[in-house]
Structure prediction request, 131 residues.
Amino acid sequence: MRYRSPITIIAAVGIGLLIAGGAYAFTASNTVPNATVGAGTGTVSGYTITSMHYSLDATTPTNIDSVTFQISPVVPSTSSGKVVISAALSTGGPNSYTCTTDTTGETVTCATTSPQLTAALLTGITVVAAQ
Prediction:
């Protein structure tokens, strides 16, 4: 059997402690906040848009100042629901506008003045809604 000096054994143990301490220092600094995670299923259905109306500017009737339409099912203004329209343009764009709903959530109004929507460039509107 081979004899090892106490210095060699102490040095080996010391190096082991240094490596273990270094590894602990990196893992001890990680903190993870509490979180809720889950999975589930649900039905995703579309909305029906009817009665789309374009309000033209009184001074410059080629400018569209707002778009109003009916939405079903409703998106109440008191909920976390949101409605956005995206206006496709023949040049430039598309422009996105955030909309508001009335208290029943059936009528949606979208101000289209920033940036100004013009009738000459408008080629289509996409409605994105969520509850």
Observations:
- DSSP finds one helix and seven strands in the chain.
- The mean pLDDT is 84.
